[in-house]
Amino acid sequence: MIRRFATPYARALAEIVPAPDEAQKLVDGLRQFEKARAASPELMGIFANPGVQLETKLAIVSRLAQRLALPDLGVRVLEVLVRNQRINDLQSVLEAWQKK
Description:
Oligomer: single chain
Radius of gyration: 13 Å
Order of helices and strands: HHHHHH
Strand content: under 5%
Shape: globular
Structural class: mainly alpha
Largest sheet: none
Number of strands: 0
């Protein structure tokens, strides 16, 4: 289910990526991240917990993104989602991207 907030994020992704092939690489990387995040109850809990410091969440994103070899733009997108408390809704953003 695409949540209402996801469409503006998907539009923003489309606007910041200069070429369609780069956009697809970015989205593929974000899908890899989402798959890893969704497979880990610990990660889902950490990202959902407002008691976990932002710096800790960003460090986790950075380490996981590095392991997945995400481009810098992908890391920045994930950081925006973390800062806006939407990282656990990445799947909705990706679904909105597909429908754009």
